[in-house]
Amino acid sequence: MEKVLDIQNLCATFSIQKKDYEVLHDISFSVNRNETVCVVGESGCGKSVTTLCVMQLLPGNGKIKSGSIYLNGTDLTKLSKKEVRKFRGKKMGMIFQEPMTALNPLLTIGYQLRENIMNHRGVNKSEANKLALEYLEKVGIANPDKRLKQYPFQLSGGLRQRILIAMVLSAQPDLLIADEPTTALDVTIQKQVLSLLNDLKKEMNAAILFITHDLGVVAEIADRVVVLYAGRKVEEGTTKQIFKNPLHPYTIGLMKAVPNVDLDEFVIQPIPGTFPNITEKIEGCRFNPRCPHANTCKKCFEEAPQMLEVEPGHYVACHLSK
Amino acid sequence: MKRYIVKRLGMIVILLLGLTFIVFSSLYFAPGDPAEIAAGVSATAEEVEQMRVYLGLDQPFFVQYGNYLAGLLHGDLGTSLITRQPILDELLVRLPNTLNLAVASMILACLVGIPLGIVAAIKKDTWIDNLLTTVSLFGISIPNFWLGSILIIVFCVQLKIFPTGGMSEPFWTAKGFMQVFLPSLSLGLQVAASFMRIGRSSMLDVLQSDYIRTARSKGLKERIVILIHALKNAMIPILTQMGTSFGGLLGGAMVTEQVFAINGIGSYLINAINQRNYYAVQSTVLVIAFMFVIVNLIVDLLYCVIDPRIRYD
After folding, report:
1. Which residue range(s) make up the domain with B231?
2. Given A90, A160, B61, B114, which is the most exposed site by the fewest CB atoms within 10 A?
3. Structural domain of residue A14, as residue ranges?
4. What global pTM score does this model have?
């Protein structure tokens, strides 16, 4: 299988008041062509930071400390700002969480689409317009002619998200990054956007890196799942492996926290404790303060667990998983 | 849109009406006697009294005010007590000079202030930003009469590059440019500094927004991100500042015109106050206020040109 995105041993830091704090530690995973990989975890676990590292769009106080990000074999971390820009949009496109604010309010939809198409496909304005119409139709927008002349404020959130998807796809990127693209949408629209992404993946043979905290969304869209906790990868496997046989106590906790109507007792079991602040220092396994099994094992407090392959393609970082 | 403009013009009429009342009554109750001034220093008591009747100053307050308003409706701004010329004619001679100075200062302030504000925002927290922010603080603090005098001493008296004063041609001619350069520099510097500060902060705001991140994620050149995606959004607060600054320019013009010996309505107003030329004072204030509200109306209309979300329906 062809690896479109290959992240290796990625470490990233944020500086807060001149002190560096590690937000990503030794993250490795890859996304293949025609595959959707979901990165899941709580808010603050480093999901979005991972995508911003790939796009090389970290805010001013964030930086990649070590590791490599290969896109079609090119290490993005080694490129200059100018060189990275040639990859953005063209080779990797990103759909953001907030469709309401992700489009420029003072420019027409048509302008924002054409700009991307002309920039990456080397066509003139009238051809760009044709392609823009084509892509708007592809993402299921009725009256594309009319939409091109409109401004973002005249459209609903669902429409705007479709337009953003159309915009990203119009440059034909190999990698599509979607950072919680459905979180700000209501459930019916969410469903439509997800099946749209699924169809488009098959049609365009792209790789999708999908960020979400919603396991329902994961079940619907993912081929493989990467679970992050406090900036570390704790488990990785196919969607089936993760849902049928979750091994890390955190993944198990996440699964239990999803309400299950089939069970007689309709309860949500939250994971006890709170998510650690990035300024907090935790020895051993980062999950130990919240882990139900940690008090039976001394090692959890002393040593960070290594990634182990427990079955083909299923990895977990837990001392107790053996 | 048309309805909005008509409504705004109606409001301007009410505003100016209120203004005439305030200016008229403050001069009415101010110490001093216009009749004495009009009759001249050597006039006898009877002559002053005759002048008072002639000018209608023996009438009750509201009759006088009513006469004044009636005159305004006919485009009559009154007669100068000193020169006995219609004030409107005297103002029309001077108005082009003042507008020339104000517009030149505004252009200078935009050309200097806005680009520097953008640069400061892009280079936030670097030495360039610190330098520009500090310089702008000086720019805002330096009084324009002082700056004007210094500029004259250095560039006109010592270096003999620019003429020391006067204004005869509009700023887009070569001669007019030389004449207006120093006055507009001394008048426009403060405004430029305020544009820089507003421009910097609104640009910083915009640069953090999601749509700028989207623009960058599309792989656009940074120049295009700044000039097309960010600047248009950042212009709205700057435009507001332009409207209010215009009033400051007209006010500041009084001092600058004095310093650079420009025959404009600012120096006309100062002279009128010194000579207690009451009618000239009230009419000039009215004209200045009128220009200010019209400029701000234009600014409000420009908002809809920039921002499609703003519609006055």
Report:
1. 88-306
2. B61
3. 3-91+173-316
4. 0.83
